[in-house]
Amino acid sequence: MRQRLVVGNWKMHTTLSEALILATSLRNSISEVGGVRVVLCPPFPWIVPVAEILTHRPSHLKLGAQDAYYKEEGAVTGAVSAAMLRGIVDYVIVGHSERRRIFKESSTLVNEKVHAVIKQGMTAILAVGELTRVHHQEKRHHGRPTRTEARSDITTQLEEGLEGISKKEVGQIAIAYEPVWAVGTGQAADGVYANHIAELIRKWLTRRFGASLAGEIPILYGGSVTSENVEEFSGQPELDGVLAGGSSLKAKEFTALCHAFAR
Ligand code: 13P
Fold this sequence. Notes:
8-stranded parallel β-barrel; alpha/beta; 8 strands; TIM Barrel
């Protein structure tokens, strides 16, 4: 049975004290949620203090990082390597659309990061989405690209992001489908559309790794998920969880997302 995953990407939010308060209240509320793995991704400087405050956390509550550089060490000002995160977090988000857009991350870099995260024994949450079609936003209903456009963008990102990943590494991969037009806009995709894209992703993974391994890779949806709309996604057969931004900063809200995916 595929792992269900609810991931909270805190992005560049929270002060240290807010981070500790949020983590503490989630430790308590998440204890009661079963059948789903919950991953908190605080900003880099808060990861260790959050890990300390979560020392006695339930085993299904994990920590993640929002990014990691692929080189182990060296003259790379401002970067944090996957090697440094080893033993502190279990998951790393790689290729988030904000990294691709704001920091101009190339697919080659994203691929190197995926390899580094896996090599260090963590799981890479590879974010993909129809990045290049954002300029269609004004022209189309809610800025949604056609399915054909979305398919070609996502296929390219999967091919490039997972290049060189072997079958034995598949257990260290999760895919997050995050359409750019839905991230932080309050305009979530509808569940049927997100499930359709997840099916396309699963088909691609099946061609690449075979049905049995592909069937084990969690596929998440991300983009304006709230407690109000989460049932749209938790009710879809191909979606194994969500990657939440804004909703992950409120304990009650985020706990509701976790409950929606609990078995
Ligand atoms: P929002 O949930 O704020 O739309 O952000 C989604 C996201 O980018 C999570 O990585």
